[in-house]
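Hey, I was hoping to borrow your eyes for a little while. No rush at all, and the record is pasted right below.
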Amino acid sequence: MSQSFAEYYQNVRQRQKRESLLWSGGILIVYLYSGYVSEFSWSVVWQGFPHLFDYIDEIMPVLHWPQLLANGHTKGSLAYWGYRLHIQLPLLGQTIAVAIAATLLSSFIAALAAFPAAGNTLTHPVFRYSLRSIAAFCRTMPELAWAVMFVMAFGIGPIPGFFALFLHSFGSQTKLFYESVEVTSDKPVRGLRALGASRIERMRYGLWPQVAPTFLSYTFMRLEINFRQSTILGLVGAGGIGQELMTSIKLDHFDQVSIVLLQIIIVISVLDYFSGKLRHYLLEGANHA
């Protein structure tokens, strides 16, 4: 008995090693071919590496300790560095508002669409694949492409940014959500079906409690992504702090590039911290309940 188990174990180990070597070799071939097609060159990397932080050095503000707390007319002071804060902070608030609005609306609609789009909810195939196709189209189009289309329709401002983030987020969230639904346990659903529960009731009481924490996590993650993406959408005139950042880059106002980037980093850090706290609080509350 022990001898046969040892042979079986060795066969399994050998098969795993062969599969690992085959997969590793295949990934290495794809990796090398991708580098060849993209014209990757180690010499270029080696030559450019010493200049990697040149731009960061360029945008760093010139601050002097003796004048640090002086008024806005004194070079080297914090006030002089932040002379456009009265313009930038409202734009930053606008960006946060657009990201939150797009995330909440897209996640809400995606949560509703995820259940009929999942393969384990007995939805008619035509309806299910129609929802999946719409979601795939929305997430296939980059946010920048959506933003350009809406800028041409509505003009420069936060509205194009909102619609661009909403559509792309809806497509991405729907896929994540219905895949989460598909990996749930079917035992609660079968129990509810045996009790005569309707399809809506089976989704509400059998599937929703299992996927709610995952939906919540994906929503918070999407909020952070949307805030970062909204800064990039300023490149095409979608408003917010991103437009201020792109304007500063184009005009070579390097000191303003750094202060805008600092604001973005601070907001993302704060969002990450509070979203983690809120997620922990809601999940702990749900578990205790």
In short: The CA atoms of residues 106 and 169 lie 6 Å apart. The chain has a mean pLDDT of 86. DSSP finds twelve helices and no strands in the chain. The chain has two domains: 2-45, 82-288.
